Amino acid sequence: MSSPHHLQVASGCTSDWKRSERVLWAIAEGTAAATGEEFFRLLARYAAQSLGARYAFVAETLNENESQSLAYWEGADYGAGFSYRFPGTPCQRVAQGH
């Protein structure tokens, strides 16, 4: 029996699958040589660029209600770090396991 991942791929559009593959390869190639803080900075940058987004950030969860950014890409350069609370954000549902 196929895993849920395989079922999703089989039922998805081939062009969506190819785009996802290109995005993952771009991120992997952009971050492959980096470690530590530089890895997270490049992950945010290449995620934004690969997805065609202006902004992206990578964060760690501090507790069930709060996260802190590890890296923030602002479209042309890296932004200052920040922390944010989950209540009232889409992150709240993710943190709760939904």
End-to-end gap: 25 Å
Total DSSP E strands: 3
Strand content: 15-25%
Query: Given the C-alpha coordinates, what overall shape results?
Result: globular
Low-confidence stretches: 1-11
Helix content: 40-55%
Number of helical elements: 4
Q: Describe the biggest sheet?
A: 3 strands, antiparallel
Q: What does the average pLDDT come to?
A: 84
Q: Which structural class do you get from the secondary structure elements?
A: alpha+beta
Q: Element order, helices and strands?
A: HHHEEEH
Strand order of the largest sheet: 1-2-3
Rg over CA atoms, rounded to whole Å, is 16 Å
Features of the shown structure:
alpha+beta; 3-stranded antiparallel beta sheet; 4 helices; disordered N terminus
Q: What does this protein structure show overall?
A:
- With 98 residues, the chain is α+β, with helices and mostly antiparallel strands.
- It contains four helices and three strands.
- The chain has helices at residues 4-11, 14-31, 36-51, 90-95, and strands at residues 56-63, 66-73, 83-85.
- It has a three-stranded antiparallel sheet.
- Helix 2 runs antiparallel to helix 3.
- The longest helix has 18 residues, at 14-31.
- The two termini are 25 Å apart.
Describe the SSE topology:
Blueprint: H1 4-11, H2 14-31, H3 36-51, E1 56-63, E2 66-73, E3 83-85, H4 90-95
Antiparallel strand pairs: 1-2, 2-3
Short summary:
By secondary structure, this protein is α+β, with helices and mostly antiparallel strands. 49% of the residues lie in helices and 19% in strands. It contains four helices and three strands, in the order αααβββα.
